[in-house]
Amino acid sequence: MPGGTYTLILERDASESIAVGALGEIEFPAGWYAYTGSALGSGGFGRIDRHRAVAAGDNDTRHWHIDYLLGDAATAVDRVVTTEADVECAVAQRVDGPSAEGFDRVDAFGCSDCDCRSHLIYHEQREQLVSAVTDAHEAAQAETAAATE
Predict the structure, then answer these.
(1) pLDDT tens across 82-120, in order?
(2) Distances (CA, A) of 105 to 26, 94, 95, 117, 120
(3) Which of 50, 63, 91, 102 is deepest in the core (most CB within 10 A)?
């Protein structure tokens, strides 16, 4: 199975605090979230299936920060955007777009292995978040392609 970078588009239908491992209690308002991660190992994008299993309650393992959010009953996976390239940080840094209006980063979430501020971004509106995620993937992929030419 191919691998690369993925962004989960998540919907939360309730506002509540969730204990997220070493990060402690974090307040997650209802709305839309984009979590960007990588699937570069031998299982490739099969990692997304694992995330879906956690969200469905079929997997209780809590290994990554995202597992705590996905394991909460108020969180559902809406869709996934993928790019077959190692552009995780480039995508995560671009998701809030040029204006960042209405976008909020959840500090230190999902980025314990890099220097990014966060790999989880919140927005109240699904359409704006999906558009920002799609644009971020396209821009990161184009930049990577240009760098290899």
Answers:
(1) 999 999 999 999 998 666 788 999 999 999 999 999 999
(2) 12, 12, 10, 8, 6
(3) 91
Please report where in the chains the tokens 């077959």 appear, as a residue. 84
Q: Going by C-beta distance under 8 Å and a sequence separation of 6 or more, which residues neighbour residue 49?
A: none
**Which whole-number Å values give the CA distances from 109 to 31, 123, 138, in the listed order?**
17, 15, 23
User: What's the Cα-to-Cα distance from 118 to each of 10, 28, 106, 136, rounded to whole Å?
Assistant: 16, 14, 6, 15
> Per residue, what are the HEC states of the chain?
CCCEEEEEEEEECCCEEEEEHHHEEEEECCEEEEEEEEECCCCCCHHHHHHHHHHHCCCCCCCCHHHHHHCCCCEEEEEEEEECCCCHHHHHHHCCCCCCCCCEECCCCCCCCCCCCCCEEEECCHHHHHHHHHHHHHHHHHHHHHHHC
Sole residue written with tokens 């976008």 = 103
- Hunting for tokens 């962004």 — which residue is that? 7
